[in-house]
Design brief:
Radius of gyration: 18 Å
Helix content: over 70%
Largest sheet: none
Number of helices: 6
Shape: flat
Strand content: under 5%
Number of strands: 0
């Protein structure tokens, strides 16, 4: 495998993001549950929401975005987004009504996927800098 192929973002990148996010979510959740159970549960719920949003976006892109089917795809994307966000807002409404929810831990869990993607990107940039310019 040449160096240009090492630094490409493909299906393997998303699998790595899923895997690393799950590992971090479990580790941080266990650590937070030991500290205080509601904080750990809030982080776990946020991590699950974040992973499910990434998965649903990947599903929509893979299944519906095809050349020549833009009108039908737009309709389906709209319906899926409406359903996804309706469920999300309904779930957040009931979560906020509970007394045990920690909003900061929930927000941390929701941001976990983005943090993992940023860390993966930084890792790719460091690898490129260490191995030289892969495009030349």
């Amino acid at each position: 495998m040449d160096t240009a192929e090492q630094f490409q973002v493909d299906d393997g990148f998303l699998r790595q993001v899923y895997r690393l996010t799950l590992i971090l979510a479990v580790a941080v959740t266990v650590g937070l549950c030991v500290y205080r159970l509601p904080i750990g549960l809030s982080f776990a719920i946020g991590s699950f929401v974040s992973l499910s949003m990434l998965w649903s976006l990947e599903f929509v892109v893979r299944c519906l975005i095809k050349p020549g089917k833009s009108t039908k795809a737009k309709r389906w994307i709209g319906l899926i987004a409406l359903g996804k966000y309706s469920i999300l807002f309904g779930g957040f409404y009931f979560l906020i009504k509970t007394n045990w929810l920690n909003v900061y831990a929930l927000a941390g869990g929701i941001g976990l996927v983005q943090v993992v993607i940023i860390l993966k990107a930084i890792g790719m940039m460091v690898s490129i800098l260490r191995h030289g310019d892969s495009t030349s």
